[in-house]
Structure formats: structure tokens, C-alpha cells
């Protein structure tokens, strides 16, 4: 504001910590399960009574609050009503989780603004989607205005990505054919020349792992198209991109999103995402070998300094070499909560310096050609 004063709402926004989620329940088991499910998506703070929650809210505001119906002594609904009546807290999205026996509370909660309800037992993907729908409402609303194939490319891959959280939690195998089908619109959009619309569509979305995976899937499919890779092989590139880092769902947000350098222990945890991904994909029937190569080898380097197996030279086939280049390029040009995205030109400079020993120079040159063609009409963020 011109006079330097701020309204209550503005000061509330300035106190919002976008990476944090508060969870409130008097049921400790429920608290624990929710915290575990959201561990890679947010920094999760749990509270088992209203007093603790009030103290935390006085300090800063989370991106959303998950409120259980079981909160001693007042119950979840009364807590939600209280928050909605407090002006400074009235705009924080709430997800209300309730037992079937608390149906009257659910019906009343549904009438309040910015409240989503979930009946127990619910799937973790539903919880993630409920939070994401609220937090990313303005982003996903823009998808409605996109061409149908582009809209389907983003919606289908997001749904597939979120469904993996349930499968991991339930120890179930991945229905690969469904995942591959969900990538069809992405392949069609990229081959139809609309990949920039997809990249733009996820700009600002708060689920970083999804955004990174979508960007890798898009660039990998684009690169494949440039190299003449079509049909089923193009689908392997797209689905390999979507799935290549799903093991990151097991990595805590604090490590996944740390702004500074990771210490030795954190590095071990971070690198474990590759084996977590492979362990998960292991039980998938009919998983194409190419998808497994993308997931297993996208951190390997030609000189053997990569991980997890230190493969080198001829042990890395063309797909692995392509995947490494695309993963590094995407990571450098991704927008993160702690850094602005690097420009494609800067990213290519860094990667050209890495080429001797780490990256396949032939593929890197080919990718650079593709970028030079593409850069003539807009950026990649
Ligand atoms: Fe990775
Ligand atoms: Fe990655």
C-alpha cells in the first residue's frame, strides 16, 4: 500500500510459510499416518490440541491445515468455525478429515469457505489432491482454458503421479498400462508442438516432484521426437519421465528441498530415491525395460562417478545417456522454492563443461540444437 500501512490480510499473507502444513488431531495414530503420507510434499507440523495450534498460528501461517473430527474437547467442526470467524486466519485452506459417524459435522463444514472434506478411510492420494486442489486452485483453474489435449496431458499425469502415493503406502504394484495411457495426451501435445504450453501450465504449481517429473517427461519426449523416436518408444520416454523419481516420495521435504549443500547423511538419503524407485517398480508387471533404465540410470555418469552403481562407458545405453542429460537440464532450469530457474543458455554452458567424462557429447550437441530451434519463440519455464 502507498502509505506503508498493511491490512490484517496482507500481514497474514506475509506470515505464510508456503512449505508448511499443520495437522491437528487428538488421535496420535492418525497424526502419524498423515505426517508420513505428506513427508515429501511439505514440512508437516502435528498438534494434538487446540492450544498448541493457536500458539503456532500466532507465529506464522501454514499453506493449509488438516483438521480431524476428533479434537478434544471441542471437536473438529467447532475448531474450523472458530478459524473461519478469525479474520486473519479465514483464508487458510482447510481439509477436514472425519469418521462416517461424524456426518453432521461434515455437512456443516462443507458450507464454510475454503474447506474440503474427506471421509475416513481415505486414500493418501485423495488427501494430497485435496490439499493440492486448494493450494494450486489458481494454477489448475488455468488448465481449464487450455486446449483439451494439453489439459488432459497435465490432469492425467498429475492424477497418475498422485496415485503412486497410494500404491506405495498399500504396497501394491504399479498398473503400468494405466500410467502409460495417462501419458498419451502428453506425447500427442509434445509431438503436436505444444510442449511450451505444458511447461507453462505447471509454472507455480507447489508439488515440486510432480512439476519436475512432468518437465522431464516433456523434455524427454521432445528430445525423442527430435531424434525420430515415435509411437510406443515415445510413450516409454514420457512414462519413464513421469516415473523416474517416484522414490522421492519417501524422502523428507527438508532434504528434498534444502536450499544449501546436503551434508553426507542427507546425500545418502537423497540418493536413496533411485533404489526406492527401483524397489517400487520391481513388482510392476510388464514394465518396459526402457522405463526401468530411465529410472535406474538417470544419475549415472559416463566416467563411472554417478550413482547408484557407478556404471560407465558402454554400460550406459543411449536411453540412459539421454535421461541423464534431460534430468540435469530439467533440474537446473526448474523453479524451486529457494531459487529462481536458471536460463536454458546458462544450463547448457554448465552441461557443456560437464560433457567430458560425465555426459554424452553427441547427445548433448543434439539437445542443444533442439533448444536453439525452440528458444526462438519463448522460454521454457
Ligand atoms: Fe533422480
Ligand atoms: Fe529427476
TrEMBL record:
Keywords: Phosphoprotein. CDD domains: HDc. The keyword Phosphoprotein applies. GO terms for biological process: phosphorelay signal transduction system. Residues 20-135 form the Response regulatory domain. The keyword Transit peptide does not apply. Residues 187-381 form the HD-GYP domain. The modification 4-aspartylphosphate is found at residue 68. Pfam families: HD_5, Response_reg. GO terms for molecular function: phosphoric diester hydrolase activity. This is Response regulator.
Amino acid at each position: 500500500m502507498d502509505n506503508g500501512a498493511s491490512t490484517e490480510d496482507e500481514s497474514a499473507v506475509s506470515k505464510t510459510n508456503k512449505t508448511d502444513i499443520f495437522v491437528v488431531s487428538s488421535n496420535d495414530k492418525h497424526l502419524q499416518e498423515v505426517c508420513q503420507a505428506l513427508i515429501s510434499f511439505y514440512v508437516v507440523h502435528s498438534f494434538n490440541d487446540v492450544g498448541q495450534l493457536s500458539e503456532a498460528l500466532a507465529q506464522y501461517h501454514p499453506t493449509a491445515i488438516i483438521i480431524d473430527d476428533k479434537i478434544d474437547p471441542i471437536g473438529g467442526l467447532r475448531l474450523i468455525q472458530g478459524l473461519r470467524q478469525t479474520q486473519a486466519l479465514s483464508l487458510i485452506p482447510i481439509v477436514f478429515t472425519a469418521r462416517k459417524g461424524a456426518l453432521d459435522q461434515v455437512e456443516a463444514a462443507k458450507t464454510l469457505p475454503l474447506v474440503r472434506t474427506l471421509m475416513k478411510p481415505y486414500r493418501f492420494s485423495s488427501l494430497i489432491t485435496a490439499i493440492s486442489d486448494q493450494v494450486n486452485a489458481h494454477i489448475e483453474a488455468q488448465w481449464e482454458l487450455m486446449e483439451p489435449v494439453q489439459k488432459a496431458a497435465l490432469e492425467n499425469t498429475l492424477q497418475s503421479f498422485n496415485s503412486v502415493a497410494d500404491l506405495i503406502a498399500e504396497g501394491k504394484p504399479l498398473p503400468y498400462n494405466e500410467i502409460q495411457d495417462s501419458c498419451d495426451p502428453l506425447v500427442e501435445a509434445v509431438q503436436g508442438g505444444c510442449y511450451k504450453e505444458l511447461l507453462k501450465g505447471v509454472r507455480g504449481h507447489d508439488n515440486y516432484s510432480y512439476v519436475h517429473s512432468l518437465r522431464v517427461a516433456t523434455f524427454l519426449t521432445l528430445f525423442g521426437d527430435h531424434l525420430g523416436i515415435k509411437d510406443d518408444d515415445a510413450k516409454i520416454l514420457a512414462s519413464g519421465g513421469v516415473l523416474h523419481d517416484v522414490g522421492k516420495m519417501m524422502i523428507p521435504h527438508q532434504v528434498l528441498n534444502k536450499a544449501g549443500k546436503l551434508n553426507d547423511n542427507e546425500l545418502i538419503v537423497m540418493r536413496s530415491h533411485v533404489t526406492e524407485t527401483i524397489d517400487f517398480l520391481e513388482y510392476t508387471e510388464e514394465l518396459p525395460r526402457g522405463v526401468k533404465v530411465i529410472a535406474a540410470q538417470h544419475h549415472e555418469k559416463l566416467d563411472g562417478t554417478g550413482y547408484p552403481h557407478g556404471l560407465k562407458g558402454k554400460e550406459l545405453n543411449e536411453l540412459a545417456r539421454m535421461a541423464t542429460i534431460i534430468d540435469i537440464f530439467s533440474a537446473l532450469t526448474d523453479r524451486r522454492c529457494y531459487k529462481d530457474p536458471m536460463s536454458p543458455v546458462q544450463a547448457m554452458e554448465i552441461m557443456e563443461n560437464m560433457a567430458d567424462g560425465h555426459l554424452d557429447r553427441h547427445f548433448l550437441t543434439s539437445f542443444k540444437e533442439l533448444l536453439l530451434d525452440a528458444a526462438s519463440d519463448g522460454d521454457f519455464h
